[in-house]
Amino acid sequence: MDLCIDIARAIDPVSHVQARARLECTACSVRSLAVCAAMKPRELMELDAIMRPSQVQAKTTFISEGEAASSVYTINEGSARLYKLLSDGRRQIIGFALPGDFLGLALRETYGFSADALEPTRMCRFDRVDFNGLVSGHPDLSTRLHDMATSELLIAQDQMMILGRRNAEERIAGFLVNMRNRWARIRGPSVTVPLPMQRLDIADSLGLTIETVSRTLSRFARDKVILMVPDGVRILNEKMLLKMADQ
Amino acid sequence: MDLCIDIARAIDPVSHVQARARLECTACSVRSLAVCAAMKPRELMELDAIMRPSQVQAKTTFISEGEAASSVYTINEGSARLYKLLSDGRRQIIGFALPGDFLGLALRETYGFSADALEPTRMCRFDRVDFNGLVSGHPDLSTRLHDMATSELLIAQDQMMILGRRNAEERIAGFLVNMRNRWARIRGPSVTVPLPMQRLDIADSLGLTIETVSRTLSRFARDKVILMVPDGVRILNEKMLLKMADQ
DNA sequence: CGCGGCCTTGAGAAATGTCAACTTACGTGG
DNA sequence: CCACGTAAGTTGACATTTCTCAAGGCCGCG
Q1: Averaged over A114-120, what is the pLDDT?
Q2: In terms of domains, do B135 and B178 share one?
Q3: Domains: count for chain B
Q4: How is residue B14 annotated by DSSP?
Q5: Interchain contact, B153 vs A149, CB within 8 Å
Q6: Residue B1 CB neighbour total at 10 angstroms
Q7: Are residues A131 and A14 in the same domain?
């Protein structure tokens, strides 16, 4: 069951494709961050030809662990949680996807994780077979994917350290620093860190409970390290936060 | 400081290279498992030309986190622990390398982890620049590396679930099942699982303490799920072990 | 035989989890 | 516009798991 809403392509006559191409990939606001960063104008038109704009509402599951991996995605606007479930319902969030992020690096025949939108989210969807076909003809793109896979692996290894050897305070501090750095690359530096996910999502990404996350954030706020604001935090004492994150 | 002992090449006259090639890569016992699995005879000779046999004693550190990533390795015989350290000495083992494993998938300009041999270990060492040069001329090899990176990422995601959401019993049971499966691919199926690492290494890979590992293994042995043997365990009740690992 | 490294076991401590109550924010319908 | 209901977040009290510290055992090796 496909919960995504594919717009444009389904209703656009073929003759409109080129017009849309110029509006979409070429004009894309997150292109410099995404897999398509290094592509030339002509390549972008090829990419555009197989791109399907897609948007989902908050909470919508658009990738389900174990199902046939038919599509790959780039996040355009919005955000998503990527997670794995145990048979008894325990959940581990393996990452959050923000604008520019690519979902589809580590794919076998089936998806290895599930993904839900955290808020109304726009994505570029690509048929996986089409996408692989395009990649095989473009060494630059292939290299870019390899670089992104390398990054992901390094991030995953850092996450193992966080989950295996850091305490709750270090995990939360590190999480906030990490989110700040990720948003900085998207929207530029800011002491206000958007947190589109709920406390339970933070807990499930850090291997903690919602209560421990809440208590730790409250303590940070009480100690004037952060200020809690709607859907995020403002960093008041960066030095202290970095020290607690041991970074 | 390079702690590896490079043999053969340093003393071999160039004229002997071809002879060594036939003895080394072509006759390699772990080739079917390694990065070089899909290579044709002629390609193997190219690989051999840049390969440097290397062997290290137990406990030798041959990769140091943060140092310039000059070499990549394939394990031939023996095993290694790959780990990251925090400034206060806490250690997270991010994986164990067994025969056939490739070290060098997730490389930036510096190594992202350290590696020590667990026992006397023989490796194929490649200069990273030479290796990349060879890869870029061989799409098969490139594909193989991409597949291996994908595998690593999936394994890393599973490890996040283990570290974030599983209890000590599940971690240990899962670890044993996992090691059994890895050895099965190398030496064929067996209920005897070699464990070349110490208890402290197991603890540091599972985010536990040595005492918790020891207690849990003792309990498994008391419950006749395993039998502890020198440098490993024998699985007595596979069904129970799989159940505890939730696999 | 004695030493050192590794492992095991026990007892008590600490961090985090669990359960429950309460607060806050927000959207909906009267 | 307010009252209500619901979802999310916070806080407290207590439980549990795992850690810490300490002692002792095992075993290979000089």
Answers
A1: 96
A2: no
A3: 2
A4: G
A5: yes
A6: 5
A7: yes
